[in-house]
UniProtKB/TrEMBL annotation:
Positions of the Tyr recombinase domain: 1-79
InterPro entries recorded: DNA_brk_join_enz, Integrase-like_cat_sf, Integrase_catalytic
Top-level division of the source organism's lineage: Bacteria
Protein name: Tyrosine-type recombinase/integrase
Listed SUPFAM superfamilies: DNA breaking-rejoining enzymes
Annotated organism of origin: Streptosporangium vulgare
Pfam families noted in UniProt: Phage_integrase
Taxonomic path: Bacteria, Bacillati, Actinomycetota, Actinomycetes, Streptosporangiales
Alphabetical keyword list: DNA recombination
Length: 105
């Protein structure tokens, strides 16, 4: 069938076979889109950048879909503000990558 259009359901079915075999359940290709957006947010990518990457028409759509993933950011902001007002420094978030100076020594 070279050169003929494929049925999207066929691709979806073939895609889900390895995910089930890996014990992840039945995944559809679109779920990788959500996974990628969620991963970007978890790594600190600004919401506006994620919105642009995933192609949402507006920043508000991305916020509505993924806003629940940012609750930790709200708690950290609250702790930092309280700490500043009360004279207690807020704990720093763990860094995920070394800076250029740390890598080169």
């Amino acid at each position: 069938m070279l050169g003929n259009p494929s049925d999207p359901d066929t691709f979806s079915h073939l895609f889900s076979k390895p995910t089930r075999k890996a014990g992840l359940g039945h995944w559809h290709p679109h779920e990788l889109w959500h996974f990628g957006a969620s991963l970007m947010l978890a790594q600190g990518t600004p919401l506006r950048v994620v919105s642009d990457v995933v192609g949402h028409a507006s920043f508000a759509i991305t916020k509505d879909v993924y806003g629940h993933l940012m609750e930790g950011d709200k708690r950290a902001a609250s702790a930092a503000t309280s700490g500043a007002l009360l004279g207690r420094p807020a704990p720093l978030a763990p860094r995920l990558a070394l800076t250029d100076t740390e890598e080169t020594g």
